[in-house]
Amino acid sequence: MNTFRLIILVLLTGLATADQDEETPQYGGDLNIGTVSVTLSALSWDPADWTWKINHDTGAVREQLFAGDLTKAVRNGGRFPFVDESYLPDESLRGELAERWGWEDPLTLVVHLRRGVMFQAKPGIMDARELDARDVVFSFNYLNDSPKRIATYFDHIRELEVRDSHTLVFHFSKFNAEWAYRFGYGYYSGISPRELAGVDQKNWRNLTGSGPFSLARYIHGNSHRYARNPAYWDTTLINGQSYQLPFIDNVNYRIIKDEATYLTALRTGKLDILEAVRWIMVDHLKETTPELKWNRWLSTGGQFMALRNDRKPFDDVRVRRAINLAVNQREIVDLFYGGNAELMAYPQHPGYGAYFQPLEEMPETVQELFSYNPAKARALLAEAGYADGFTMQVQVCSCSPSQMDLIPLLEDYLSKVGIRLEIEPMEYASFLSVMTTRTHAPGYLMGSGHVNPTTTLRKSFKTGQTWNPSMFSDADVDRQIDEIHEERDEARRIQMIRALTVEMLDRAPYLWLPIGYVYTAWWPWVKNYGGELRVGAQRPGPIYARIWIDQKLKKDMGF
Fold first, then answer.
1. What is the predicted pLDDT for the residue at 484?
2. What is the CA 402 to chain-centroid distance, rounded?
């Protein structure tokens, strides 16, 4: 890039971004995105398959009862960055399909649906029509009847009643502190029309909903294209004026498996937004492409090696603690991450406020697990009967550049205390499948979302849960998790969550690993955006609906 062009670009960028409030939204154009899951194609289009990625791929088409209120985003003067994977504090919520809601009694929740919301037509399946309460009941039952559903997920809901065409009544069998998340804005909360009963929902061509976009094209391993829904119901206020959403004609997810390729796509303007950039790439991008705008955020996915507690030698807490002590966590933070990581940020996330207890406030036995003490690790192994160490198989996903880079370091650390790793890289579909079918190896290096302060404990440590790859099982822990969910008083719930978090860290069903910071990058022509990633569980669709492209600026910048 020559000096003259750089000066012009900086001037144009400065003028365009100095006061975004003065800008007028523009309709049209394409938004090309390398999402937080840029390497992964859709896992399934069928809600009954209960895949974690379903809202990422369908959340611009299917809407939910609740969503995050983007008027309260940090860039709008609010408190919420909207980067959390699936945690929405109550004060950050807005009704999406729900217009209003309230409790009639401690176990009866009434939800009034928004009127005038239209499902998009799907030739051969249905004509366009208005959403009503029976669609919500259909969507709930479709999920709840799935043989793949997560155990206990909807057990707090005794019945879902249609009071009238736009009024739903949730009859609870018991209170659940996650009620808004479980079927309001969570992973498995998308609302589909009841005409899809008997239709193959695994076929992307059959996907329809009431959202701002429709799925126009899907090429596995290549791209998703979402086309503007001209009959979408929602609007947004810009400078006091109401605008119909969405602004963009097409949103394109680019599926790019190679890191160098998607970074090049960003630098050359083929991507307007790249939502997840590793810290090690940031300085080079800032030097070669200084026009990019940035947001830094602490990963909302925990990183750890699950140790199968149902197999020897990992049923012995001394062995599990030894593995933790053998790994130099601080060195990983300082050298592997260049300081761009937190030593301890799982199972609770610092973004959870009072639910999160800093490591320095925890008991010494927990703090010890994040120290480096190979001598004590060897002593614990000997005490457990493994003085000569042992060999263990470890599976890792080839879809994660960071984890593929990290595994050789773990191999080196553990070899120094006599633990030898047999490493098996796997493609993501196979990697996920072995965990969900419980055929995964004794060691399983993975990232797993924090989700929210209660789910992070339930899914990671409760007996029989899908996302409990350590196979940890303890009746008393199960009881504590149930009591946390049933506790109405948040202050008391915070105390209970803190206590159980300390207990689970101390029992070390996993090799705890540092949590890295991630960067989001976008070009200045992307407007009405500040690095927000999700307004529900893995759901970016409403964010994309509010973005517009400054076509003149893009052209003036040479793209």
1. 97
2. 17
Say if residue 246 is preceded by a cis peptide, omega within 30 of 0: yes
DSSP classification of residue 206: G
**What are 448's strand-pairing partners?**
302
**Exposed, middle or buried by CB within 10 Å (0-12, 13-18, 19+), for 525?**
buried
Residue 13 is predicted with a pLDDT of 41
How is residue 15 written in tokens?
Answer: 């003028």
| pTM of the entire predicted model | 0.89
Residue 361 CA to residue 343 CA, distance in Å, equals 14
Task: Identify the band that residue 23 occupies on the pLDDT scale cut at 50, 70 and 90.
Answer: confident
SS3 content of the chain, % helix, strand, coil (to 5): 35, 25, 40
Task: List the beta bridge partners of residue 300.
Answer: none
Question: Average pLDDT for residues 20-49, to the nearest whole number?
Answer: 91
Query: Cβ distance 187 to 193 under 8 Å?
Result: no
Q: What is the DSSP string of 283-338?
A: HHHHHH-TT-EEEEEE-SEEEEEEE-TTSTTTTSHHHHHHHHHHS-HHHIIIIIST
The H or E element that residue 411 is part of is: helix 401-415
DSSP state at residue 184: I
Q: According to the model, what pLDDT value does residue 540 have?
A: 98
Cβ pair 402, 338 in contact under 8 A:
no
| Number of neighbouring beta carbons within 10 Å of residue 18 | 8
Q: Give me the numbers of helices (H) and strands (E) for the chain, helices first please.
A: 17, 25
SS (H, E, C) 422-462: EEEEECHHHHHHHHHCCCCCCEEEEEEECCCCCHHHHHHHC
Do the beta carbons of residue 97 and residue 210 sit within 8 Å?
yes
355, 294 contact by CB (below 8 A)? no
Strand, helix or coil for residue 43: coil
Which domains does the chain carry?
A: 3-292+523-556 (3.40.190.10), 301-516 (3.10.105.10)
